[in-house]
Design a protein that fits this description.
Layout (H helix, E strand, L loop, with lengths): L1 H5 L4 E7 L5 E7 L3 H7 L1 E4 L24 E13 L6 E10 L4 E2 L4 H14 L3 E15 L7 E3 L19 H12 L3 E6 L5 E6 L2 E2 H21 L3 E3 L13 E8 L18 H12 L1 H8 L21 E3 L6 E3 L9 E3 L8 H18 L24 H10 L1 H7 L1 H20 L3 H7 L4
Parallel strand pairs: 1-5, 14-15
Antiparallel strand pairs: 1-2, 3-4, 4-5, 5-6, 7-8, 7-10, 7-11, 7-12, 7-13, 9-10, 13-16, 15-16
Length: about 450
């Protein structure tokens, strides 16, 4: 407290992720931080079951239990001063079920911890490098959504500077994120107008997920300060591509060596790496429910999108679902390109690790790697084509569901099936235009 006061900080924002990865928080005046740390902050547990529109979704342990509390205690080891908000520091919160004294079963951060404990039993310490894309939008009252891409420049993929970023949004954002301690390394304009990618340095899996979660919240907050909107929605525009959430994954063994590297192994990969690939490929339909978690997510998929549409893997092949970058040795890793930017970082990492771990336990080899352009349905199975099918795949994949936890999986399925039901009842502008004048 003395250090914070010396930095003119008088508020600590305690933040934690809900089920979809949105940041939930409470601002605590500095004088009350000791009490918050000792006793925790009370939140209604239904925050985990609240839709983006504010409706409480009927999930076991929510409405039927009388909307009980969870307790959130500040994790001061994650404390950082917000560079753009004078007088405010932020930290993550630990979510506890006061009825049991244990972590809340819906807590995404604790779900990842559980999966990491299973990895440790296997002698593995996962290392993750997140890559996230987003669209920057500016107000446009004359458009149907009220927003347009900022800027709308096309043909500026893999560029930086004023050509694609005329008011230096990316530079300002990179510097703020650096000062927040999020381990950002590079940034550039991406394929579509107003689309940017910022890469985070690799680190142990929980730290990487923490930083990815805080990164998304920070980018959205910085855009709001500029009067704009940053969205990690999978595909916000029909005439543009989608935004991905690629995960680079390796594992260190008990001797702190890269367990995925083996110069004598097939493709220069160890048996552990090949088994991990096999597990991710085998459980890909269920993984889609967690890495492509919205109705909108499945509009990102399809031929010639550079988003994985088929279940396959390849050696340095960006059209494959799992890409093996060319580096070996300490840099040997796989890149899962399945996820989109709307995914909850904790759930995306936990599910990926769980699938890889199941493959390592099974000890099976993956199918032959993809060669050439990866959109031939004669060679590879197709991923689920909508959220409902992905949720069905998750429910049917009992091995993955058991590793993630039955309580969590049941809660997640109920929550997301409610999203599907609400969408199916919603009449879209497309339907009106398509049918109203002709039928």
């Amino acid at each position: 407290m003395e250090r914070l006061a010396a930095e003119d900080v008088d508020v600590v924002r305690v933040v934690y992720p809900d089920l979809i990865g949105t940041d939930r928080a409470r601002d605590v005046l500095l004088d009350h931080l000791p009490s918050a740390r000792e006793h925790g902050l009370a939140f209604c547990k239904a925050v985990y079951h609240t839709s983006p529109q504010g409706d409480v979704v009927p999930v076991a342990g929510g409405l039927d239990a009388g909307l009980p509390d969870v307790t959130v205690r500040p994790d001061l080891s994650t404390l950082a001063v917000l560079p753009w908000e004078p007088g405010v520091a932020t930290c993550l919160g630990e979510v506890i079920d006061p009825a049991t004294g244990a972590p809340a079963p819906e807590s995404p951060r604790d779900l990842l911890r559980t999966v990491l404990a299973h990895c440790a039993e296997q002698g593995l310490r996962p290392i993750v490098g997140p890559e996230l894309e987003y669209f920057l939008l500016e107000p446009a009252p004359d458009t149907p959504t009220g927003w347009r891409r900022s800027p709308e420049t096309t043909g500026a993929v893999y560029t930086a500077g004023l050509r694609a970023d005329p008011d230096n949004h990316l530079l300002r954002t990179l510097r703020h994120l650096r000062d927040l301690g999020l381990g950002v390394v590079t940034g550039n304009h991406e394929f579509d107008g107003g689309q940017y990618e910022i890469n985070l340095i690799h680190s142990e899996a929980l730290d990487a997920a923490d930083r990815a979660f805080r990164f998304k919240a920070a980018v959205k907050e910085l855009a709001r300060k500029e009067g704009r909107l940053a969205t990690f929605m999978a595909k916000p525009f029909g005439d543009a591509g989608g935004s991905g959430f690629h995960l680079h994954l390796s594992c260190d063994d008990t001797d702190n060596r890269n367990a995925f590297d083996d110069p004598t192994g097939a493709y220069g990969l160890s048996a552990t790496a090949r088994h991990a690939i096999a597990g991710i490929v085998a459980h890909a339909p269920a993984l889609a429910a967690l890495l492509n978690p919205t109705v909108n997510s499945y509009k990102r998929f399809g031929p010639d999108t550079l988003a994985p549409w088929l279940i396959d893997w390849g050696l340095d092949n960006r059209s494959a679902m799992v890409r093996i970058p060319p580096e070996r040795g300490a840099s040997a890793r796989l890149e899962l390109r399945l996820g989109d930017a709307s995914a909850n970082p904790y759930l995306a990492v936990a599910a990926t690790l769980a699938a890889a771990l199941l493959g390592i336990r099974a000890g099976e080899e993956p199918p032959p790697p993809l060669e050439g352009y990866g959109y031939d349905t004669a060679r590879s199975a197709v991923l689920p084509t909508d959220l409902s099918a992905a949720l069905d795949a998750l429910e049917a994949d009992t091995d993955l569901a058991d590793l993630l936890g039955k309580d969590f999986t049941s809660s997640y399925l109920s929550y997301k099936r409610n999203e599907v039901e609400r969408f199916q009842r919603h009449v879209t502008d497309w339907e009106f235009t398509e049918y109203a004048y002709h039928l």
